[in-house]
Amino acid sequence: MSISLACSSAAVLIGYDMTLIGSIIANVEFVKKFGDYDAKTDTWSLPADEQLVWSVVQYVSAMCGAMGAGYMNDVIGRRAVFCILVACTMVGTIIELFSPDWKVWIVAKLLFGAAMGFMQGTIPAYISELAPSRVRGFLLSLFQFWIMFGAFVAACVLEGTSHVEGPWSWKGTIVSQLGLGVMCLALFIPLVPESPYYLVSKGRLDAAKAALLKMRGSEANYMVEEDLAAIVGLLEHEKLEKGASPSYMECFQGPNLRRTFLACLPMVMQHFLGYPLCGNYLAYFLTLSGMDNSFTITVISMTVAMLAIICAFVLIERVGRRLQYLVGTFAILPLLLCIGILGFVPSSTAVLRGVASLCIIWSFLWYLSVGAVGWTIVGEISSPRLRPKTTSLAATINSLINMGWSIAIPYLVNSERANLGPKTGLVFFAPSLFLAAIAYFVMPETKGKTFEELDALFESRTPARKF
């Protein structure tokens, strides 16, 4: 467990950064540094165009990083990619700290975006290769926990530095990212071995055996030779069928097409089940309902999310991925419908509190199901040979849809634009209903199954509900 905890710890860096950039733009000193001064109104503002450029650059870089991770994991290994992604965040932090203007800040966003892509394209695959099948789901769900923990740490640091005067009111939050990067490396380097699947693919059988012993040598009656032989046999079988070097094209051929679709489906559903509205705009609705303490709002939303993820830990190896995923999905649908209907009721404090309450319930259900289970499915549904590339494709889809909604949602919700407000819930309800129906028919159960068993089930084209 300690190995998987250390392996997934890099997710804290992305959770921290995504929360930081969403909050720091309201810091007066930050706006003075990177914004424009209006002499007529005697005010400083951060142009929306600059914010949009930062956001788009980061997401595009994340997509490129995710696709690149698919190759890098096969060429230089998972450990090297992990260290590179942490290095990207640390260099990006230094650039943010000393940026003279908003244009140089773009370079930092490029690095953070690449790190996000490397992380999403590497860590789920890495953990799935390190974890025993009996606890694989639990350990993969740690990925979402670390993201939320990073967001929570960022909120606490932002609250602490908000009382500081001068530029360190925002620089303090930036500097703290370096500490998180050092923490990740301090956990990772001594604890986490290279993936035995990567080592076997490179013919380094002795190193693969040593990695397996480091991972599972403390288990009673653990037979390392059998485990190693199973990995060798699995990779050799796939190599004989497909050739020496895995490619992205293979992800869309034969049974692998189905596995690629199943890896990408949770990433699509995470967004279309309402995260851009209920996840990102919960604080907005709470503020409109009369709660004006931003830190209290943040603590409420993040506490609910972390509690849900902890519950997901408990359930995922008991009820299985399919049931937990589908129950959460179908429970979210009526919430989106109710939020949308409340948008047609004349606005009042009571209505806005109702919307905020529904968003809190939504948050619990989302993190309990598609939030935590989604990345678990990504990590274990692909074939061992194509796992880095399938995971990278899923991460690319995630960033692409995230970028689209980050541009669309402010236009849909805000009063000076489309002014849909809570009615936006209906925009999510219709596609979510369609996607939920698809998931019901195609999502298999992977709990407790070895990669050899999953390979056999997919190659025999077993229907999802007969897994």
Overview of the structural elements:
The chain folds into two domains: 1-37 and 47-193, Growth Hormone, Chain: A; 253-467, MFS general substrate transporter like domains (Growth Hormone, Chain: A, Up-down Bundle), CATH 1.20.1250. The protein contains 21 helices and two strands. The protein has helices at 2-8, 11-24, 28-34, 48-75, 78-98, 102-130, 136-140, 142-161, 168-191, 196-201, 205-216, 224-242, 255-272, 275-279, 282-288, 294-316, 321-342, 349-381, 387-413, 424-442, 451-459; strands at residues 36-38, 43-45. A two-stranded antiparallel ribbon has the order 1-2. The two termini are 27 Å apart. InterPro entries: MFS_dom (IPR020846), MFS_sugar_transport-like (IPR005828), MFS_Sugar_Transporters (IPR050360), MFS_trans_sf (IPR036259), Sugar/inositol_transpt (IPR003663), Sugar_transporter_CS (IPR005829).
What key phrases describe this protein's structure?
76% helix, transmembrane, 2 domains, Growth Hormone, Chain: A, 467 residues, mainly alpha, carbohydrate:proton symporter activity, MFS_dom
Structure in a nutshell:
This protein is an all-alpha fold and 467 residues long. Helices cover 76% and strands 1% of the residues. A two-stranded antiparallel ribbon has the order 1-2.
Q: So what's the CATH class of the largest domain?
A: Mainly Alpha
Query: Strand percentage, roughly?
Result: under 5%
Global geometry: globular
Distance between the termini: 27 Å
- E-strand count: 2
The major sheet is characterized as: 2 strands, antiparallel
Q: Give the topology string: H per helix, E per strand.
A: HHHEEHHHHHHHHHHHHHHHHHH
Mean pLDDT across all residues, rounded? 86
Number of helices: 21
Q: What is the fold-level CATH name, i.e. the topology of the largest domain?
A: Growth Hormone, Chain: A
- Structural class by secondary-structure content: mainly alpha
Question: How many domains?
Answer: 2
Strand order of the largest sheet: 1-2
Question: In percent, how helical is the residue content?
Answer: over 70%
Contiguous uncertain segments of 5+ residues: none
Protein name: Major facilitator superfamily (MFS) profile domain-containing protein
Family: Belongs to the major facilitator superfamily. Sugar transporter (TC 2.A.1.1) family.
GO molecular function, one term: carbohydrate:proton symporter activity
Organism: Fusarium vanettenii (strain ATCC MYA-4622 / CBS 123669 / FGSC 9596 / NRRL 45880 / 77-13-4) (Fusarium solani subsp. pisi)
